[in-house]
Amino acid sequence: MATNNRRSNQDSKRYFDWLDHSSADLVAASLLKEDDRCYDQAAFHCQQSIEKALKAYILLRSGRLYDGHNLTWLCRQAKKYHKGFQQWYDESADLNQCYIETRYPADVDKEIDYKMVQGFFTMAKEMYRFIFEQVDQELERREQAEERISRGK
Description:
mainly alpha
């Protein structure tokens, strides 16, 4: 019996690895959205970018790597550390539809056109920037705390 826990145990526990992969997914989405044969894949990479960025932020703040792909749930976890994540609930719900629907054939395919994929990309890019800013602020906060501690010694 395969479990998700087994896979999670192999995943990196370094937040910066998750950010690197998130950034690569965003680049892939940017390239793929320019080819109408690849709109589904572009949308999928938008979802993946934000999933990995959210996991990076939560990992940095909590030391815990969460399993799962639901962006709204991950935003709620991130909100425990910064209330600003609440503003992304709607966007995360929109991007959630890009996880499974874009990867597997269905009897009734979800038609993704250029306008939709461009919207998903814009959402992902804005969310990525916000998350990256939060990571940067957390690292700066930690650096300042370390400086205060070292000056106090």
